[in-house]
UniProtKB/TrEMBL annotation:
Domain of life: Eukaryota
Organism of provenance: Cherax quadricarinatus
Organism classification: Eukaryota, Metazoa, Ecdysozoa, Arthropoda, Crustacea
Listed name of the protein: PKD domain-containing protein
InterPro entries according to UniProt: PKD_dom_sf
Length: 454
């Protein structure tokens, strides 16, 4: 019969087993039994111990070359037990790992980046992901990202990297899309199967760059009329690249105003900006679009036209001798001018940009002449002249023209070729002999080629 043994106990290599309690005895009697306590018996006795799990056996082995597996075989000298086989790996235990990230284009643009975490790189362009570790051999590196990019990137290296004074580095190029990530590197080999891989994480900002295909143009290619219209510019990217991440733009409007504004996608990928100009002119607008990883300069010319307000024309004539300034007309309406003198047209307006003037003969409807203003933005500085060599009563229209306006003013002139209504008067003042006598000579018009002989 069989006696119940004691409760099982755990064993370690080198333990001595001592069993106390009842011994088992064979149920049949037979000659040649066991001697128990010095007394022969007709029964066989036995003790039984059950080993519940495989018993570990420690064997010493020194690895000479890493990444070469050692085959182990354990046999029973008596040939009773089935031989046991297994494999042990000669690999260096990985104790630490760090992650660094670099991108040449980004660091060339901004040398202060990526010297320490957090890291910044441009999207959709290769960046170098580097694992830094003290000891390994071989090593399996896995780069993962949160939020997920859909896959983890695993690289296996069979090299030997013994512990030394300088850490080892392994670098791999990876490309990511725009987002903010927690980037983690996991390092392991067979030494880390039970304990799990060594890991390290860092914060990574991946930003869409400002491409060199951005352009800026006026919202209106013909320019802007101030004040009715508000001048503006529009930015476009001809490449169709993703819109820059967290970008700003610094705009120099070329009128003394410089401002930095958020560069935000309005939904069309074409940001618009407006600015109020005080005066007409050509303005060279420069803009610098930038974020932390990139930047690009663009420029355009703004054509600003001042609205013509309160346009008037006055006339005078230029004498051939005497004062160099113009002289006013004669007659009751002061609109009679000598036939042989250049007639001056003097513009006046409270504001305005004028490209040229057109003078129309109202009677015939024909264009008499036109005058191009040397500087359209200072039209008051440029009076213009015409020579009319025949007597006439002339009704004319002077038109001031710019890119947006044609503003008219009407004139009525009398071009006179002879003296009209000449009078001499001494005001009935009696003077003594040798005393200065004063005469007043007046004309309604001096006409052409007139000289005075007393």
């Amino acid at each position: 019969h069989r006696e119940v043994m004691a409760t099982p106990v755990d064993l370690l290599p080198g333990d001595v087993i001592t069993i106390t309690g009842p011994v088992g005895k064979s149920p049949q009697a037979s000659a040649g039994g066991d001697i128990v306590a010095g007394v022969p018996s007709t029964s066989h006795h036995y003790v039984a111990a059950i080993v519940k799990e495989n018993m570990p056996v420690q064997l010493a082995h020194s690895c000479i070359t890493v990444n070469v597996d050692v085959n182990l075989k354990v046999t029973d000298d008596n040939g009773v037990a089935t031989p046991l086989t297994n494999i042990t790996s000669c690999e260096r235990n990985i104790t630490d790992v760090q992650i660094t990230i670099a991108q040449l284009l980004t660091e060339t643009f901004n040398a202060s980046l990526n010297l320490a975490p957090p890291y910044y790189i441009r999207s959709n362009i290769n960046a170098n992901f580097t694992a830094v570790f003290s000891v390994a051999g071989p090593i399996s590196l896995t780069f993962s990202f949160e939020p997920s990019v859909g896959t983890n990137y695993t690289f296996n290296d069979t090299g030997d990297y013994p512990l030394g004074t300088v850490p080892h580095q392994l670098t791999y190029p990876l490309t990511l899309t725009e987002d903010t990530y927690i980037a983690t590197v996991f390092a392991q080999n067979k030494h880390n199967i039970i304990s799990g891989p060594i890991s390290n994480s860092t914060l990574l900002y991946v930003q869409n760059e400002v491409t060199t295909t951005w352009e800026v143009n006026e919202l209106n290619s013909a320019g802007f009329l101030i004040m009715p219209q508000l001048p503006g510019i529009k930015f476009t990217d001809t490449s169709g690249a993703p819109f820059p991440t967290n970008a700003s733009v610094t705009i120099n409007w070329d009128d003394g105003v410089i401002e930095t504004l958020p560069f935000v996608d309005p939904g069309t990928s074409q940001p618009l900006f407006n600015h109020t100009y005080a005066k007409g002119g050509y303005y060279n607008v420069t803009a610098y679009i930038f974020n932390i990883v990139s930047g690009f300069n663009v420029n355009c010319t703004m054509y600003i036209v001042e609205e013509i307000l309160n346009f008037k024309i006055t006339n005078n004539y230029l004498p051939t001798s005497g004062p160099t300034g113009g002289r006013p007309g004669f007659g009751k309406l002061k609109n009679q001018y000598p036939m042989d003198k250049n007639l001056s047209f003097i513009p006046f307006m409270t504001q305005g940009t004028v490209d040229y003037y057109i003078v129309i003969n109202d009677t015939s409807g024909s264009e008499m002449f036109r005058f191009t203003v040397p500087n359209p933005f200072t039209p008051l500085a440029y009076p213009f002249q015409d020579y009319i060599g025949f007597e006439t009563e002339l009704n004319m229209t002077v038109i001031a023209v710019n890119a947006f306006q044609s503003v008219n003013v009407s004139l009525s002139l009398d071009i006179v070729g002879q003296i009209r209504v000449c009078q001499i008067d001494d005001f009935s003042i009696v003077t003594q002999k040798n005393e200065m006598k004063t005469f007043s000579i007046t004309f309604e018009s001096v006409g052409a080629g007139t000289c005075l002989i007393v």
